[in-house]
Amino acid sequence: HTSPPRYESAPLFFDTAVFLIVLSNPYFRSYGLTLLSGFLSAFALFHNFEMGLSLVSAYIFLLFANAFFTKKRLFKDRLLNFIKPFSVFFVSLVFLFLTFVAYTFIASGQQPNWELYWRLISLYQAGFTNSATPLIGWYYLHLFIYFSTLISTLYLQIKRNVNWKWTVLGAYSLYGLLILNYYLGRSYYSNLTVVSMPALVIFITLFSDIKKIKSIFTPKVFKLIYNLFVIVFVVLSVLTSFYLYKRINYRIWSWKEVQKLKKYPNNRGFVVENWVPLEGYTATDLINSVNRIKELIKNEKKVFLISKYDTVILVMAEKTNLIPYPLLE
């Protein structure tokens, strides 16, 4: 589907598992671990498009770096180093694709509607659910961490002076940079928290290897990078303090609003009383609509519903709509 790369249990499992596996499989020497990391990367692409595409891109970058930045001189050997693990990923991708097609046909008697799938993705790419990127924000620190790590890794790869841990870290920084693009297009507070995981992991790793970093770079280069990081951190801390204050006030207001929730007894759904903007249409009316739908169609799972609140009503009524699109305002 095309939902954002939320760090719920499954998406978190995929990126964490893949990078931990490749970290423990230097230069893809273990066929079993290579098979597992390739399969999980392919599966992630079907589970969540944005996160999966970012993960696959970083994984292929890692395969490329492993193959073409090695000490082997023959191009044939380098090409084989790339093709072997990539073929595992590609075969896994084809297998999952055919399995999904077969399952859909067996369950529904029809082939998957791929046109609808790509149409939904194109809607998101065209700006559906987008929001303006703030002029000043902590994403600058993310960009600094990702770009500096990726460029440093590439520099060390060219110099043939990098170990496997730093090679994986470079691929992880590329992954973080790609999923950060989701926040830049949809700049909500929660999305920034979601895409901050790679930046936090990279920062902790770099801080723990500070002595090795000093030995890799010249004192002037190291001092320049260190000073730039401090400047970016201090400037962002000062400039975003006002927004942090507003955010804390908003959290306090939200907590108070939660106390006004209108509970729905038949499942875990709820409606905030003052969320419904139409005058005369309250949370009680919404719940009455849900009860009416469940009363009229007890044994049916699909219903043709025309409502501004169709998504909320359908979820609470445990039904699905006959039409493939939500009725957006």
Count of alpha and pi helical runs? 14
Distance between the termini: 22 Å
Shape: flat
Fraction of residues in β-strands: under 5%
For the report, how would you describe the main beta sheet? 2 strands, antiparallel
Structural class: mainly alpha
- The Rg value, from CA coordinates, equals 24 Å
Global mean pLDDT: 78
Describe this structure in words.
By secondary structure, the protein is mainly alpha-helical. Helix content is about 70%, strand content about 5%. The chain is built from 14 helices and four strands. The chain has helices at about 10-25, 30-45, 50-70, 75-110, 115-125, 140-160, 165-185, 190-195, 195-210, 210-215, 220-240, 240-260, 285-295, 310-315, and strands at about 260-265, 270, 300-305, 320. It has a two-stranded antiparallel sheet. The protein starts with 8 loop residues before the first helix and ends in an 8-residue tail after the last strand. Residues about 1-10 and about 270-275 have low confidence and may be disordered.
